[in-house]
Specification:
CATH superfamily of the largest domain: Electron Transport, Fmn-binding Protein, Chain A
CATH topology of the largest domain: Pnp Oxidase, Chain A
Strand content: 25-35%
Largest sheet: 9 strands, antiparallel
Bound molecules: flavin mononucleotide
Number of domains: 2
Number of strands: 9
């Protein structure tokens, strides 16, 4: 009798756990209903559309509105991605800074084409761009490097980005070494600078109800931007 009571006690606990269990990822889904994107209300130039959406993401205080995923292609045509921060944009393209010797730097040296993607979750928006990548000028990279906080400038020297290192201690020791060597004025390392992706294709995605999302793609055709709607 006592055992029976204990058993049903356990069963009740197990039932309760089951009812509060994390849902299966296959059951996670969300309806997108915040906004729409249509031809009449969108800009003729993709850069203007991007400027508006980036400004709106910043104004909406979405987390890290300036973070974008960068895809590059390495040897054997294998793609890889990582997150970087946009540091500028204009008609020439989208700029970020990094270590030229990193994995992405080596992949860009071998194949100067890349794709970028912003995902502003709270706004139910994505922007994608694709195009050729070039390095920004030394003058531009110097100006940005010297605007960075001192520890970031030392970090650019201390981290052989993407290389295997012995441990965290090696990184900290490197930082101490370069901090002592350069004091308050580290120069820009020769292996560190900016890249600019000049898009020849952009896509703006706005989530909509019932998976009938809005997608507008802009592509360069004879020097003009052609705007087309893509099926979601
Ligand atoms: C929010 C965020 C911003 C980042 N910004 C940069 C950046 O601007 N430049 C950079 O080199 N790495 C940045 N990183 C680190 C990269 O994602 C990545 O770890 C690093 O660049 C090495 O990538 P790779 O080995 O593919 O070259 C950032 C990471 C996060 C999460």
């Amino acid at each position: 009798m006592g055992n029976q009571k204990l058993r049903s006690g356990y069963e009740a606990i197990i039932d309760r756990m089951a009812s509060t269990r994390t849902p299966s990822i296959a059951d996670l889904r969300k309806s997108y209903e915040r906004a729409e994107l249509n031809e009449a209300a969108s800009h003729a130039l993709p850069l203007d559309q991007f400027a508006q959406w980036l400004d709106e993401a910043i104004a909406a205080e979405v987390p890290e509105p300036n973070a974008m995923t960068l895809a590059t292609v390495g040897s054997g045509l294998r793609p890889s991605t990582r997150v970087v921060l946009i540091k500028g944009y204009d008609a020439q393209g989208i700029v970020w800074y990094t270590n030229f010797d990193s994995r992405k730097g080596q992949q860009l040296a071998g194949n100067p084409f890349a794709a970028l993607q912003f995902h502003w979750v709270e706004l139910e928006r994505v922007v994608r761009m694709e195009g050729r990548v070039t390095k920004v000028s030394d003058a531009e990279a110097d100006a940005y490097f010297h605007s960075r906080p001192l520890d970031s400038r030392i970090g650019a020297w201390a981290s052989p980005q993407s290389e295997v290192i012995a441990g965290r201690g090696a990184l900290v020791a490197n930082a101490a070494k370069y901090a002592a060597q350069f004091l308050l004025n580290p120069p820009r390392p020769p292996h560190w600078g900016g890249y600019r992706l000049e898009p020849d294709s952009w896509e703006f995605w706005q989530g909509r109800k019932s998976r009938l999302h809005d997608r507008l793609r802009y592509r360069l055709l004879d020097g003009h931007w052609l705007r087309e709607r893509l099926a979601p």
